[in-house]
Amino acid sequence: MNDVPPLDKSLNPFEVSLGNIMQTAHEAIVMVDAGQTIVALNPAAQRLFGRTQDQTLGLPLESLIPPEHRTDHAALARRFIDSIDIELQMAPRRLVHALHANGERFPVEVAVSRVEMADAGGSRRYFAALIQDLSPVRALQAEVEALKQRLKAVFELAPVALWIADGDRVVFANRAASRLLGVEAGEALAGRSIYELLQEPFHEALRQGVRQVLGDLGSQAMVPGQLQRADGSPCEVEIALAALPDHGRTTVQMVVSDVTRRQAQAKELEKSRQALRQLSGNVLEAREEERGRIARELHDELGQRLTALKMDLSHIDRSASDQRVCTMLTMIDETMASVRRIASDLRPLMLDDLGLNAAIEWLASDASRRLGIEVQVQLGCSDLPTEERLVIAIYRMVQEALTNVGRHARASRARIELQRQDDHLVLTVTDDGVGLSASALQREGSYGLMGMRERAHMLGGEFHIGNVDGGGSQVSVRLPLPPPQTTPPPKAASPSP
Predict the structure, then answer these.
(1) Which of 90-99, 388-397, 477-486 has the highest mean pLDDT?
(2) Which residues of 157-166 are buried (b: 16+ CB within 10 A; e: fewer)?
(3) C or N: which end of the chain has fewer Cβ atoms within 10 Å?
(4) Under a CB-based contact definition with an 8 Å cutoff, are residues 162 and 155 in contact?
(5) Band of residue 135 on the pLDDT scale cut at 50, 70, 90
(6) Pairing label, strands 161-166, 374-379
(7) Predicted confidence (pLDDT) at residue 81 exceeds the cutoff of 90
């Protein structure tokens, strides 16, 4: 095999027969004869190995192979050369190591094929090696692997529970998932059904979420659920779902957040709000009762005494000091007017005597007189409920709304509407003033507005305040009507014996 005639570098048959094929090829091509002597290499191969053609032609092929790999290469090459069925002895492409002129080792992929070439003696067999440098590929693979390891570390050390499901099976779960379920870190969650981990009432919601993210890649879904820990205790969770492409398949990534404490805190907060609202309602009711009591005492006690005093003064002989008596009578009249006004502010008697509509009409008339503006009233229901809490709440909200118009609106006109809509009462108070600024709409510090909102919420209603088109502001309150009182039918008289 080694009795090959010396290579004549001055007349390279490959340059004649293969021409531009080798010279212009981007891949490195090395030609060897049956004795594994290099007989040709193209410019790409010269660049790859850092050797010129003159430095390389005539050298054994093993000079391009690191010493530690030459024995394996020689055995493999011998089997390949002697083989009849080449494809059975050597794969079309093979990963090997190559040696640069500077001594650097680098990975390459080699595909070898036989070449029969005619010469003066007939034909001679050569072997062409197509060589691809895998260094950039290996470097990229190393970077990808390093990135995968970093992502895996982030995934594994994330404080929130994460697992990845393929179909309905968990294929990966991090430590936080084990902690969430109360299992040992070494206890495998992989292979378990995601529905096995979730309580049955939440299975359908999870299925819908999985279908959504798989059907619309890039979308996300949020699913509530409940897990059962290893100790049997329930765990309220929220599961964020997203599709995750993985090596030609699409898995589902699940971020599982423990919301047990948050939900417990939310329930406690709502309980506290309900308690505060109940307390506020009790305070308001107690205040209204106290106002009513004081108003009645002012009207009944002080009012009657002032009236009696005025009658007594009227009978006094005015001849001695007529002017002083007149002054006293005037003061009594003014005091009685003040008593009536104070009593009305505390608890308008007409609210009890004439009803809510008349009380609202009086508020509008009083506001028009005091503020110097036109106040229109439209009362669209005559069969108003008589429940005291509801009547007082509507009266006080109209009173406060008109007070706000007088203080802040700089309006010339206001309008009060009270309408019945199905099983609700709707109150609106609108003005044509300057309206409310954005900061004023967001500010919650007005005690008047807070009181109106609280009264509405205590009655299960809604409260809104905002600006209207064309200028001005509007207070809107929607309150549910109490169910109608049903009187039981009279009992049938018992038959006389």
Answers:
(1) 388-397
(2) eeeebbbbbe
(3) C
(4) yes
(5) confident
(6) unpaired
(7) no
The torsion angles phi and psi of 236, rounded to 5 degrees, stand at -75, 130
How far is residue 15's CA from residue 31's CA, in Å, rounded to a whole number? Answer: 11
> Tens digits of per-residue pLDDT, 445-471?
466 788 888 888 888 899 999 898 888
Which CATH number is associated with domain 350-483? 3.30.565.10
Strands in 274-401 per DSSP E: 374-379
Region label for 309, one of left (φ > 0), alpha (ψ between -120 and 50) or beta (otherwise)? alpha
Beta-carbon contacts of residue 130 (< 8 Å; ≥ 6 apart): 27, 28, 29, 110, 111, 112, 113
Check if the beta carbon of residue 389 is closer than 8 Å to that of residue 360.
no
* Extended beta strands in 176-316, E state: 220-228, 234-246, 249-258
Tokens of 119: 């010469």
Helices (H), 187-242: 194-197, 203-215
| Superfamily in which the 158-258 domain is placed by CATH | PAS domain (3.30.450.20)
Tokens 């680098």 map to which residue?
Answer: 106
Q: Where are the domains of the chain?
A: 13-134, 158-258, 268-347, 350-483
Task: Output 352 or 150, whichever has higher pLDDT.
Answer: 150
